[in-house]
Amino acid sequence: MKPVHGITPLPLFCRRILRLLPPLLLALLLSGCSVKGLVTRQVTPVIDGMVESLFAEPDLQLARTAFEADIKLIEGLRRSLDSRELQVRQAMALAGYALLFCEGVDNERASRFYRRSLNVGLELLGEDPFERNQEDFEAWLVGMEDQEALFWTAFPYGAWMALNLSENEATFRLHRVEAMIARASELNPHYFFGAGDLFAGAIHCVKPRFIGGDPAAGQALFHAVGETASRGLLLPLYFEARYYCPASLDEERFDQILQSAEQYDLSQRPDMALLNHWALEQIRALGEMRGELF
Questions:
Q1: Is the pLDDT of residue 34 over 60?
Q2: DSSP letter for each residue of 146-199
């Protein structure tokens, strides 16, 4: 094609691309899709891959650095590409960081991260069920089917309460958190390595008997999770050593757990290396605290 008035025509491939743009844009508009939605669907698998890589990391120092980076990455993504999937992963990252790297080191900081995770969980729920009266709350919970939203509201809130038992908020709302965790576990008992039942077991152990505490019931839950959702993980043994043994003054079982942890084959679950290396370190720390626990 010859130039017109000194203008060089576009190459053929460029003209073909330009002809395609209007129908492509029209298809996007008619289908209700958006560029943001398309990008979000591409980002979510990338985040999932990062989470899998993080759980497989045996070096706790590197894992901590990665957790901190992931928290800010997901937070940044949510500002422009928000989605339910990113909300779930943000709640998971915040609560996981508080549990693995803040509790026992800086409990005030752990409490702040648990509250941030709770706030994301409330976003997932779309409301604050703690504002309901008891009758409405019970009816709401019976009909609630959103297991992830329930879990990522109740789990970080319960963990915050465990660190702030003197707060009136913890005293008056704990029973609702327990009910929400129980409902979440009912919907999916294997979710997040059975963490719902691990939490319920811990509550059984720390609550006084006169208000429903039952260390033996807590131990039974730890054992059940160890045979199912957390098979191959040291997490149930850690929870048993931390919560059941001191509550029952069971030093013999405590010593058995310490020995089992040292003999544990960490290579059997390479996909969960982070949790197993962390749990082993925590069990060893409990062993050094024997005088304070019994």
A1: no
A2: -HHHHHHHHHHHHHHHHH-TTSHHHHHHHHHHHHHHHHHHHH-TTGGGGHHHHH
C-beta separation of 94 from 156 below 8 A: yes
Can you tell me the distance from the alpha carbon of 246 to that of 240, in angstroms, rounded to the nearest whole number?
9
Name the pTM for this structure.
Answer: 0.84
Q: What is the mean pLDDT of the chain?
A: 88
Instruction: Name residues whose C-beta falls within 8 Å of residue 228's C-beta, 6 or more positions apart in sequence.
Output: 189, 190, 194
Question: What pLDDT, in 10s, does the model give residues 105-162?
Answer: 999 999 999 999 999 999 999 999 999 999 999 999 999 999 999 999 999 999 999 8
Q: Which residues pair with 4 in a beta bridge?
A: 7
Average pLDDT on 36-45 reads 66
- Using CA atoms, how far residue 234 sits from 208, 229, 259, in Å, is 26, 12, 12
Q: Which is nearest to 50 in space by CA: 10, 89, 105, 17? A: 89
Measured torsion, CA atoms of residues 194, 199, 202, 203, in degrees rounded to the nearest 10: -140
Structure tokens at 24: 């492509």
In single-letter form, the type of residue at position 168 comes to N
Please identify which residue in the block is written with the tokens 């943001």.
Answer: 36
**Rounded Cα gap, residues 40 and 145, in angstroms:** 24
